[in-house]
Amino acid sequence: MPITKILQEAKKFEVQVYQKPKSLAKLRETHIPFTGAPRKHPTHPDKVLLIADPYSSNMMYYEFRTQDISYAEELPTLVTLDGESIPMGRIWVRKKSVGIRCTPFLVEDLQAITKKST
Known about the structure:
The protein is α+β, with helices and mostly antiparallel strands and 118 residues long. The chain has one domain (3-117). The protein is 19% helix and 37% strand. The chain is built from 3 helices and 6 strands, in the order ααββββββα. Strands 4-5-1-2-3-6 form a 6-stranded antiparallel β-sheet.
């Protein structure tokens, strides 16, 4: 299944602001913040996708288990010139937990491209 299809099927993840931690200093010691547009994982309900820059032509996203997220914050919504809006958020992920960083790319034979241009 193409990655754009997967991301389109991933429904918006309504960011629920978790109870604010008692100590922000302790949170910074034990967690790492990631910012982007959160989405529900299309096939795993216990995972979250976080699209780092949703309007970029270089799409990149993270995948985290929900149990590794201890705190979430809503950030200002991004709006395009066409009026399309995407809610943004910051999630705090526990250090030493495993996440996936995915950067889709086009597979192409570079030798074929360089031969065409000469």
